[in-house]
Fold this protein.
Amino acid sequence: MKKTLIIISIVLLTLLTACNSSSKVVDDYDTSQLSADFGDNEAYEIGANAKGMPVFKNHKKALQQAQIDYKKGFAATAKEHALKPISQRNYKNYMSYAWQLETNDETVVQQGVMIAKFLDIYENSFEK
């Protein structure tokens, strides 16, 4: 009997953990802890996942908005490092390169930094 209860407990715990995926917002997040301010755009709303990490409430909308807001930075990063357009599959490449763009255009440099900060939160939506 005791063995059965232990097995049932383990199965339930596993199921509960699986339900709390990294992308699911389970709580509020104090955005004053972040190193970046993405403004008041609804696409950038942030909550906390089951691990207490900041995540965008809708990571797909957030990425779409970031591509609009930081268009020059994404284009410069793609060109400088021969990257395909950003996607869920290659965002880590952009995360690595965007903050170190080599250009005299300060707007592009700042957008690159913001892209890296954005992707630092974006990646929390996916299992590691």
Summary: Residues 21-125 form one domain. The first helix runs from residue 2 to 19. The helical segments are 2-19, 59-69, 71-81, 91-97, 106-122. Residues 55 and 123 are 8 Å apart (CA to CA).
